[in-house]
Structure formats: C-alpha cells, structure tokens
Amino acid sequence: MSNIDRDIDRRRRAVCMQLLGGLAGIALGGSARARPSVDEAAKVFRLDGAGVTYAFGVNKDGQLQSLYWGSALAPEDRFPTPVPVWENSSNETSTVVTPHEFPGFGGGVTMEPSLKVTFPDGVRDLVLKHVDHRVEGDRIVIRLKDVSRAVHVTLTYAMDAATGILARSAVVENRTGNWIQVDQLAAASLNLPYGDDYRLSYLTGRWAGEFALQTHDIVPGSIVIESRKGVTSHQANPWIAISRGNTEEESGPVWFGALGWSGSWRIHVDMESLGNIRATAGYNPFDFAYRLKPGESLASPVFHAGYSEEGFGGASRLFHRYQREKILPGAPAPKVRPVLYNSWEATLFSVDEAGQTALAEKAASIGVERFVMDDGWFGARNDDKAGLGDWVVNRKKFPNGLAPLIRRVRELGMEFGLWVEPEMVNPDSDLYRAHPDWVIHFQGRPRSEARNQLVLNLARKDVYEHLLAMLDRLLKDHDIAFLKWDHNRAWSEPGWPQVAPAEQQRLYVAYVQNLYKLLAELRRRHPNVEIESCASGGGRVDLGIMALTDQVWTSDNTDPLDRLLIQDGFTRAYTPQIMMAWVTEAPNFVNKRVTSLEYRFLSAMQGGLGIGANLNHWKEADFATAKRLVAEYKATRKTVLQGNLYRLVSPQHRSGRSATLSVAQDGSQAVLFAFLHASGMRDPLPRIQLRGLDPKRTYALRAIAGTAAPRTPRQASGAYWMGHGVQVVLAGDFQAAAFVLDAAAGPALAIPG
Ligand code: DGJ
From CA 80, how far away is CA 39, in angstroms rounded? Predict the structure, then answer.
C-alpha cells in the first residue's frame, strides 16, 4: 500500500469513527454507516451505503464473481452463491464470459486481466482463488492465491457511508522463493450486465484544451483511455462515467469512477462478446514491469467508484462531496480558497523586487488574499532555457533576497506564495552540471528535451533527499504560505541506469510513490503551507495528487469563454473547491479574444478565484469593478466551492449559452451564473429554472452582475425559482450575469403577474 493510500485510509477511518461517534445521520443522504456484510453460507459479500449496493461472491470454482452494483437492495435480499456463466461455445468458454472481480491472466482468461505475472521459468499462468476474507469496519478484505504458486493478492473494498462510493485496491505479494515480475496490475475490474444502450463519458484534451468531455455508445470491443507519459496527462484524465440511454444531466443511472494515480495509468472499458460491460483501471501495462523479490509486494492505486440515479449532475455532486470530505487535505472541511494574484501572465520570467512589489500593492487594493510570484525568481532563469534546478534566489532580480518582497506582501495583509518546479532541470543549470546522471534517461542514448528541460529521477533516493532538503530549506528560510508546484513536460526515455536492467521499469511506480512521499513529508514539516498541483495547466489532476495538494491549476487557457467548457468538463469529475480560475488580460493570449472584465470575472468566479492580469495596465474603473466582484466572491465562495453544483445549461457541443447554480449545503444560499456567447436572429433566451433549493424557503434574489427581466420578484419561494425560473437579460456578445439567492426569514413578497 502506498503512502497516499494509507493516508486516504487513515482519513476514511477517522471519518468513519466520527460518524460512529455521533455525527451519523446528518444529511448523509442514506444510511449512516456503510454496511459491509458477508453471507458465509452463500459466500456472498455485500457493501451497502447511501442508497447503493455492491455485491460479489465466490463461485463454485473458487473465483470472485461480480453480482450486482447499483441502487440499494433491501437488506433481506439474498444472493445465492454465484455460478460461472455457461460456456457459449468453445470460443467463449465459461472462464471468458464470467464476470470476474479480479481475474489473473491464466486458465484461459482472454478478457482484460486485473493481474498478469511472469515467473522465472517462463510460466505466465495465474489463476487466483479465494483463500479467506474478513470485515474491518467499513471494508471487506479478501485474500486470493494462485492455484499452485505462492502469489497472494489482497483486495480491499471500502465503501463510504455518506456517498456509497467504493474504494477498491489490490496488493500482490510474492511468497515464492524466487522473483516474479508483475506485468500488469489493476486496482479493480468492475462489471455491469449486458445492455445495448450503455454510453461512456471521459475527458480528453491537450495543453490549453483540457477536460474536453467525450461521450459515445459502448459497442462490442474496447475503449482504452490512458496516459503513457509518466504523469496523469492533458490528453486523458483517469475518470469515466457509464450511463444508459435514458440518462440525462439530472436523471437516470450513472456509474462513475476515477483512479487515484499521478503516473502512467490506463482504464480499459470493454463490451465483451456476450455483452458484459467491464471497466479495468490501474497502472498502465504499456512498458510496465515490476519485479518482486521473494517477500516483496506491490500495491495498486485506488479506484474510487460510485453510482447515482440522479444523472451526471447527481454523480458529480456525490463525487465532489467525497473529494471534499474524504480525500482533500483538510477533509472533511477543507478551507475555502483564498483569492490569489499570480504574476505569470503579467511579467513572465521578468520578475524583480520593484515590479512584484508594485503588483502586490495593486493586488492588495482589490482584496487579493494571497500574492504568488511565478517562474523566474531563481538561478539564471530569464527564460525557459536555463536555471531550472538551481533554487537559489537570483540576486540581480532580488538583491536583498525574497525577504523584502515577502515583508511588503505580509504588510499589505496578504500571504506569500512561490512557484517551483522541483522535479525538473534545465541542462543549462548548476544542478545538471553537477549531476547529469540524476535525470531519467537510458545510458548512452540521447536525452530528449521538452521546454529545454529534463525530468529528474525522483525514484532515486539521492534526488528525493536533495529535493526534500531544498524545499524544506526554502520554506524554513521564508514566510511562504503556498507553493505552486509545476511539472511542465511528459517523460521520455524512461530509463534508470543506476539499477539493474530488470529493476528499471520500477520507475513508473517508484517515482510517483516518492513524489507522494515528498509532498506528504513537506506537509508534515510545514503544516500551514498549501500546495497547488500544476502541470502546464491541468496535466496532473487526479485523486492521488488531490490528497496531498489543496488546489489545482485547471488550464493555462485563461480565455473566459474556453474556460466555461473546460470548467464544465472538469466539474464532471472534480470538485470546484480545487478548480483555480484566473482573470487575465484582454485580448487573451490563447485566442486573442476580447471580453469585458466583468465577463472574465464571472467565468473565473465559478472556481477558486485568481487574478493574473497585468494590473499596471488597469484603469481606475477596472480596479473598482475588480474590488466589487472580489468582495462579492468572498461573500459567496463557500457556496460556489463547497455547495451542490447544478450544470443547468451546459456549454458542451459549442452551445451558445451556459448556466450553473451552486446551492449551499444547508440550502441557505445559491449562486447563479449565466453566460451568452452571442445574440443572434433575436433568439429569445429561455427562462432558467433553478434546482436544489428548498421549495418551502423564501429566497431573495440579488444581482451580482447583469440584470433579471423587469418584474422579476425580489423575493420568492424556492418552489417559484425552481418552477417558474429566472428570466436573465443577456444581449450582445460575451455577456454574463450572476445572482445570489439568500434564504430569507419572512414570507414571500407578492409576485407581480
Ligand atoms: C506552466 C504553468 O501552467 C504556468 O501557469 C506558469 O506557471 C508556467 N508554467 C511557468 O513556467
């Protein structure tokens, strides 16, 4: 089990203890405790929680077989011992068509295996059978073993009581007297029964175009979503949702899940020959090999999987809650995000004491709470060609070190944050000149650079220790409240020449484990320092890094219109609590699009608000607008970041309109954002019907920006706002409006007809 898994385990247990200790039943949306149970006679295991049941059992061949995953069954419903599916023909034998929970590659299995190993004698056959099981609190632990060789597997199934989300993981242990090589290891395989109307949703992208939602039919064959890049990646994110033909945004079944792993990963979704739907998620087997000496073990990442009957919206609200309450640092109550200023788009590498101080003073005047100096403050870093790895303050830019700037930022009432990219090095750096062997590479082979940089091999103990000492010193020597932790390139030539050839591919796991260990150790030593996961934008967003970082940089694309789409995709999987969004320049550097400052603010106010514009270019009116909207944001951010999100009108499919509503967990406040790309043909705008309000409470509507149609009541019941809706006035190009609805005590005013 990795540190991160342990950490997640610890938190989950702590939350479970709290629930047992008396918090049970408070708005849990289901049973107060997840109930794992075992029917010993039938050898059937069941996990129940928050309206979800997951069941599996041991079939007559001793193999784990899936039984059910979906809406809660009655407690008295009993499953008989599972029976392997009948052979369909000699081409679809029973082994091939049975829905296995965790099949080894062996015994004729041709479906995607959960575990594949190679033995020293060339045998690659592994048939896993049930050995024993136990219930531990909210989890069921199953032990499996190969039919003849001492390869043991421990599977953990832990269901979260509040959301019914199941965390599945596996540990493979070599108890043979010789090495074995793990060629493939998944956290879980999940099965759904035959159906001809399943659809798969997932997120793909590129730099400046992350979190693009893809949805299409699941048909016979396989869909592979993966990263081979050593990092989570922009190209695909380890999240999937499986829906049915009748599923919509707010209704119908959705099975969803995400892998907590920040290295190369793969999710394989299959429709098998008899129509069984199967998803297998784990380490990417591409170029993977992990040799285990006798006595060694390898843990998979954790796959977090949930079910909702309330469509994609219900699924994401459950997942957001789970992330806030079980995964994030500070769970179950992570702090709201401070409004930050970041220097990158304003000054790029040209940072210096005078320039940053001037920006900080302007940022403070509009209510910014955290001033972050980005790239360029260290070594010979004047562009991206040199200096990376030399984490000493550049004395030409900061003759007196960082202390005067930090002091001024603190005097202005803000926290100070700093950009770092610890895992990387420019060949033109003192670090690389001293330690050319510290990078990931193959001996005697070219080292491909990207952005003029190479990747340090964090799997190495010396590299790990160097980075820990360097970052620890940086945080000890300066009053730093926040690190923006960047990672600007994917891996290439994934060699580790310092270890034996047979050990080198351990890199894929060992690197990420050491990254997690480094983050965890820094957090332990500096508990008040917050960290942002950034990888050229949103290239490292997943539930693994999320447990150790407080927020993520969603995308380098700060164009406010593009962001609506990116944010819509992002929130399908991840909570707005971590989704940073900046207000930057117009025209925006990505699309050269010109939008109003108010439009840019409203787009960014749907996540953790940041400002990245060059404040030296702002006029007095801009400062006034910004100051007003920052104040509005502070008054509503808890609802936006931690409330229930309803994607009322999605910007997907190049829709010209979009709207989101966030409703506070206690129903006392709601925040509505509405956007129009461009008016045309005098098209009327539909009224926006709200969701998730308490129908009996009275809510007062107030515009943060923009207007509602004349005769819109200032105050009405939740039932009115949901049934009748709000007619928002939007006309022109790149128009936006936002409203706050505060639950009021008194009765509703008379509604004008
Ligand atoms: C990539 C990040 O996504 C940007 O925000 C910025 O920090 C640059 N790196 C700095 O090099």
Answer: 9
Structure confidence at residue 34 (pLDDT): 74
Best residue among 231, 343, 344 to mutate for probing ligand 1's pocket (most ligand atoms within 8 Å of CB) is 344
Q: Over the range 596-606, which residues count as b (16 or more CB within 10 Å of their CB) and which as e?
A: bbbbbbbbbbb
Work out which ligand 1 atom sits closest to the CA atom of 535. Answer: 3
Q: Where are the domains of the chain?
A: 3-327, 648-747
Q: Cβ < 6 Å from ligand 1: which residues?
A: 344, 374-375, 419, 486, 488, 534, 536-537, 553, 556
Looking at 427-436, 552-561, 574-583, 651-660, which range is the least confident one? 651-660
Predicted confidence (pLDDT) at residue 395 exceeds the cutoff of 80: yes
148: helix, strand or coil: coil
Tokens read off for 129: 């059978």
Q: Do domains 3-327 and 648-747 have the same CATH topology?
A: no
Which of these is catalytic: 556, 559, 562, 742?
A: 556
DSSP codes, 233-264: -SSEEEEEEEE-TT--SSSB-EEEEEEE-SSS
The pLDDT value recorded for residue 26 is: 26
Whether domain 648-747 has CATH 3.20.10.10: the reply is no
| Shortest-distance Cα residue to atom 11 of ligand 1 | 375
Indicate the pLDDT class of residue 751, thresholds 50, 70 and 90. Answer: low
As to burial, measured by CB atoms within 10 angstroms (0-12 exposed, 13-18 middle, 19+ buried), residue 262 is buried
Q: What is the mean pLDDT of residues 619-648?
A: 98
pTM value > 0.70: yes
Task: Tell me, in angstroms, the distance from the centre of ligand 1 to residue 488's CA.
Answer: 8
432 pLDDT above the threshold of 90: yes
Of all protein residues, whose CA lies closest to atom 10 belonging to ligand 1? 375
DSSP letter for 617, please.
G
- Looking up tokens 């997120």 gives 203
53: phi then psi, degrees, rounded to nearest 5? -125, 135
Q: Taking residues 98-107, report their average pLDDT.
A: 97
Protein residue with least CA distance to atom 1, ligand 1? 536
Answer yes or no: is pLDDT of 238 > 70: yes
Which atom of ligand 1 lies nearest, measured to the CA of 553?
3
pLDDT at 690 over 70: yes
Distance of CA 451 to the CA centre of its chain: 25
Which atom of ligand 1 is found nearest the CA of 348? 10
Q: Which fold has domain 3-327?
A: Beta-galactosidase; Chain A, domain 5 (2.70.98)
Assess whether 270 carries a catalytic annotation: no
Strand, helix or coil for residue 687: coil
**Nearest-angstrom CA–CA distance, 240 and 255:** 8
C-alpha 486 – ligand 1 centre gap (Å): 7
Which residue's CA is the closest to the ligand 1 atom numbered 2? 536
Supply the residue whose CA is at minimum distance from atom 6 of ligand 1.
Answer: 344
Beta strands in 406-498 (DSSP E): 415-420, 424-425, 454-455, 482-485
Give the tens place of pLDDT for each residue, 160-173: 999 999 999 999 99
Ligand 1 centroid to Cα of residue 581, in Å, is 14
Q: What pLDDT score was predicted for residue 13?
A: 38
Which residue among the candidates 146, 160, 486, 568 is catalytic per the annotation? 486
Q: What is the mean pLDDT of residues 418-446?
A: 98
Active site residue 559: no
Look at residue 112 and tell me whether its pLDDT is greater than 50.
yes
What are the pLDDT digits (tens) for 497-550? 999 999 999 999 999 999 999 999 999 999 999 999 999 999 999 999 999 999
